[in-house]
Each structure stands twice: as C-alpha cells, then as structure tokens.
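Sharing a chain and its predicted structure for anyone who wants a worked example. Both blocks are below, sequence first, tokens second.
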Amino acid sequence: MNPIEGHPTHSPLSHDEKNYPLVSIVTPSFNHAVFLEETILSVLNQDYPNLEYILVDGGSTDGSLEIIQRYADRFAWWVSEPDAGQTDAINKGFARAKGEIFAWLNSDDTYLPHAISEAVEYLQQHPDVGMVYGAANFIDEQGRVLGKFPARQTDYCRLRQGYVHIPQQAAFFRAKLWHLVGPLDPSFYFAMDYDLWVRLARVAKIVYVPRVWANFRLHGSAKTIAADDRCWPEMLRVHYRDGGTLFAVIVWKSWLRKLAAPYLRWKRRRLINSFAEK
C-alpha cells in the first residue's frame, strides 16, 4: 500500500517569529479518531509562533485520515501508512523534524494552553538543562480530570532506581540530545520513553517545572490500562543492559509492582468507570 502523505507550503517567518527556536511536535496515531482532532487542536491552538507539527499515522481505518486531511495544510509533514507501531512512528516523525526542541504527543493526549511557550521559555533561560517536563492531569474519555500524574523531580540515579515521575506528554528536550542518544529503541513497546529519559539524563540535566502542561488520557484501550504489565520488564531490560545488578532497588520495585498490579489496574478502571457513570 502506498503511503498517503502531505507537505504543505509554509510562509516565511515574521521578524518576531525568528526570535523563537523552532519546536517540532510529533504525534503518532493509529485508529484514534475519537480523540485525534482534540489532540491536533491542542497543538495547533498553542500560542507559540514557531511550531513544526508532524503527524505519523499507521494506516488507520476508523476515519482518522479524514480528520488528518482536514488540517493537512497546517502540518509540516504527515503520512498515513502501515508502520511497526508507536515507537516506529515517533522515530519516523523525528527523522523529518528540523526543530531545536523536540516533543511528542500521543493521539489520545492533549496539551494545555501555553505549554509549549512556557517550556521553551524555561529552556531558553536555562541553557544547561537538556530536558524540561511539567505536570499532567489524568483525564477520561470525555476530557474530565480524574486526578494528577505523580510528577516530581528525578535524575539519572533515581531513574536507574525506577523513580521515573516524568509525564511523557509534558516533556520537551533539545533536538541535539536526540541526535546524540536517539532514536527510540523499536524493540520497546511500553518503556521506550523511560529508556530515552535514562539516556538523556546520563548526558544532560533534566528539570521538573510544577506547571500543568498536558492531559494524560486514561481509557479502556490505552496502553497504561491494557498493557502496563509490560512496562516494568522493559524497564528491567534497560537496567541490566546498563550494567545493573539483581539486587538493585529497581528490581525489588518491579516485584512489588507485579504483586500490586491487579489492584492498580482495578483501581484505574474503577476510577474511569465511576466518572463514566456520572
């Protein structure tokens, strides 16, 4: 099957826009038409003036293509073709990206207003920081806030111990670091972001800013609900690959998480269902 893709023509930046570094946002998507337009608009409606938006669809058959084509002239590049999954789609998008700052936003999540401008402002004011991340809400299918992601400051040592606390939806990092340590490892299904955070934090400072920048959507088909049992085994792959031992904190945490997993999945589903019934 031939890919369906688009390359819109962009007008030159105004003088004021040239003062802002180009930010590249990639959205990987597959059969998420029910959420996709909200995701797209949360990017396009940002107040940041120098934005490159790339959408990589895996050949959706649920009406996503019609939504994508509706906004085709506002994407720097988009494609709809079969791929090897989310990680492959993100890598494909960043391979096309030309920005100084990178981020990806999954097709069921959304940005809050001013997220990009605030993240860029922080990185401009702190040239020693390689990645900045904010806080995120948990939301349901209708966009109602269910709670807060447990975001807090972490670093390389704490990441290696399994203390992640980084909402991927609210993370922005310098493109030069992606080119240094990327791309994402396509063998990961769930923990490809954790793997990237470890690699970034090994070579650069990462900082948490307590500002809500994104919404993390929980729903029945979301990987966080449907397949989170694959997360910790993949995190352990990173641990052992980087010389970790059997007696490390992250190993014990993985066993505790495995024991608690049925309860945590039940709790998340109950939370989603309780809001759906209202």
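Comments welcome. The radius of gyration is 18 Å.
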